[in-house]
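Archive record:
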Amino acid sequence: MLLCFNDRGFTLVELMVSVAIIVFVATIGVVNYRNTGKSSAMQLEAYKVAGDLQKARSMALGALEFNGAVPYAWGAYFNIASPGQYLLFADINNDKIYNTGDGVLATIALQNNITLNISGVINIAFVPPDPATYLNGVNSGTASINLKDETGKTKIILVNYLGLIDVSD
């Protein structure tokens, strides 16, 4: 009588090693997926702020009206006293900064536990028709708007006196 053994199967050790490798790779993938989601939310908010700054600049370039008149400037107002939001405004009194008498186009809330990480107040005003850019009432320098998430990661939106807007880490 001839005995025939089937050599086509896997041993228990081979199966356990394969399962351990799959679990290890899956764990790394899940951890990286969670970190990518938080990073994407931060990047989305930074580009949303940059887009709103571009919107204010475009409104100044187009000399759009606010309540029936072209304002002296269109701008954005960031205040550490309200770290979860910022304003788009129409400068009514020609001082190139936001005051309570100026028109508010929109109050924009930051999402996903992202907050402003600035010191004090930042006013960015675009004066039509060029539009000339004023940072805290002065046509020189650079404004840095820092955003921070709950883990401490930051994104920086830079605006210079020429009106160039850039997002960086």
The mean pLDDT is 88. Strands lie at 73-79, 85-91, 103-109, 115-116, 121-127, 132-135, 142-148, 154-160, 165-168.
